[in-house]
Design brief:
The chain has 154 residues and is α+β, with helices and mostly antiparallel strands. The chain contains two helices and six strands; from the N terminus they run H-E-E-H-E-E-E-E. The longest helix is centred in the N-terminal third of the chain and has 21 residues.
């Protein structure tokens, strides 16, 4: 089982966002509040607040990209078989409507063949409080076997 999934189970929704943000500080800019973390599915809430606004007073595009990478990465980690590792290599995003409320970021990996090694695409959708889709992302994850591709020191 994933160490991240074990951590989530031990600290719960409230504590998990804080632990993740302490280990990867940039995620603290969106103050994620996890709702669900399980293999194939991760959801987190991003509160609408001034620190993540753009000049229009709506949620900034970078904040939504940050949320997408967070839930997509966590979902990938807790879903992959233990002998695999991952790193994001690309992200294609679409901003559909202005985000004016709290947001719910959802990574759903139910349609992905997790037995593959190489590039896989993880879909993420972000919804406002009216359940309107405001953003989508397709995150390309580079999946390798652990130990594969590492250079050894002489």
């Amino acid at each position: 089982m994933s160490l991240i999934l074990d951590l989530y189970k031990s600290v719960g929704n409230e504590g998990f966002g804080k632990v993740v943000s302490s280990q990867a500080p940039y995620f603290s800019t969106i103050d994620p509040q996890f709702v669900c973390v399980k293999p194939g599915h991760v959801e987190a809430i991003i509160k609408n607040c001034k620190k993540i606004h753009n000049h229009l007073g709506t949620v900034h595009a970078a904040a939504m990209c940050n949320a997408a990478e967070l839930v997509g990465g966590i979902m990938t980690d807790v879903t992959l078989p233990d002998e695999r590792r991952w790193i994001p290599s690309a992200m294609d995003v679409k901003y559909l409507v202005k985000a004016k409320t709290d947001l719910r970021a959802v990574a759903d990996g139910s349609g992905i063949d997790w037995s593959n090694v190489g590039e896989i695409v993880v879909p993420v959708e972000i919804f406002d409080t009216e359940d309107t889709k405001v953003f989508t992302a397709k995150i390309t994850m580079n999946i390798k076997l652990k130990g594969q591709g590492k250079k050894e020191l002489p």
